[in-house]
Amino acid sequence: MDTEPIRAAPHQALYRRWRAQTFGQIVGQTAVVTTLRNAVRLDRLSHGFLFVGPRGTGKTSMARILAKAVNCADLRDGEPCDSCTSCAAIREGRALDVVEMDAASNNRVDDMRELLPRVYTSASDLRRKVFIIDEVQRIKEGWDVLLKTLEEPPEGVLFIFCTTDPGQIRPAVVSRLQRFTFRPLSVDDISGKLTRILAAEGRAAEPEAIDLIAHLAAGGMRDAESMLDQVLGGGDAPLTADSIRDLLGMAEGQAVERFVSALAAGDALAGIRLLDQLESDGRDLVAFAEQVVAVLRARLVAALTGSVETSAAADLSRAARRLSGIDASRGGMGGYRWQLELALLTSAAASASSASSTGDVSGPPAVASRPAVATPPEMASRTVTTRADRAARPTPAPDDTPELDAAAEADPIALTEPAAGQKTAREPLSTGESRATPGAQREPVLAMTAALPVAADPEDLLARLRSGWSEVVAFVARNPANRPLISACRPVEVQGGVVVLGFPEDQVFLRDIAERKKAALEEGLRHVLGQPVGVRCVATNIALLEPVEAGAADLVEQARRIFEGDLADVREIS
Fold it and tell me: Checking DSSP bridges between strand 98-102 and strand 157-163, what pairing results, if any?
């Protein structure tokens, strides 16, 4: 009689097969392990614990090990044996007295009420009942049901809560628990365990490949083991860093270095061509941007040691500021690709500004000086166009165009075509202005950047404003009704062509009034800076900034207008 062949056991994920089963197998959490092991050994365990930390750092594994330790029949110096009946049942998920819940799907009041009868029922097989609840930050109203039980639980009951966001848990709950913080694992900790796993699996790997996975895991052991499992499934060949980059859609190190150099030097064309090549090779631009940030950070750190020239360090610092505004969640205007290109374009404009101010023409040419290049199809599909019947307009002079940073932040369409009838604050209106005929040929995007203004450095704008603030006050205060507003605020920051004006926290009403009079404030700032800027009013602590001196007559006039009274008498008080 023929028999059926024995089926092979299904593959189990690496992070499950290599989950820690004893305190000694936990990696990178020495302080937590030592404290809990000693508490078990001395029988000084609390009734409730809160394990806090990023994902993949061992919180749930530690909770299960602690459940083993309090029920182990052969406990050795606080360490569970992992071989007795109780330990085996907990390891295999068969222990009825160890209850695991996911609060992400069991967070209602009714769910907590259903849990209470199990809390007050005696343990059936084990010495102590253990309740492990993961993602407890998802519990909201359900805490009302558990508060009294957490404060005075039945004998032999242990609560272990795990969370990645303790700030969402009620303070009344946290105060009833002992909190243990799990830190992100170091690269060395992760690399060490991955090396042991590879040796046990009989697989070879380059040290660079192991370190690459450890860096990409960002402190999470489970993420590292999942990535290793993924690359091991690609074949029996030894693991290399290049094979891992190909599998994960990462760019080569040389490509990242070239992009950082182009960004720092303001060579937008080279950077955009590199992005074209990366997309055609199927690289993930989100992962690429993370690689760029890592390389840029390494270069900035090297600059602190003096191994980088001062001018190069300044270029790197500006490049870092360009990248800091990138947001992967923004999907409009071409998504992540467009944001990387915008960082290149603004960097190129800043380089052109620096070269023109110093008279240096030997540096990398700005985008404006380059000939128009053919726009790749994927770039053309992202270009914002206006209606076909909109008339083409003459390119404004460079001095009269809003700066590139402001255009990029406020209206990306301005990068490809000026708005209808656009005039700057310094350009007089002309009744006889000639207009081009409709349907005129539009220039490619890169060619249009010749008309874009040179981006000013935000720190330079802020310094100019602070040094000339008295002039701003005098200009805006020509209308006496505006004097209380401009006298109360100070420039605190410049963000992409928008000046942030800070008002004292106890004078929020002035900030609200200023929001309605932005036009007057913007006109005063333009008078000093010589270029249009936006205004945003915030309440902040501006006590550390230098006050603007005001004469006695100005103060009297300001008080009269605030209190809407008439001046009766002026007396000097000695």
Answer: unpaired
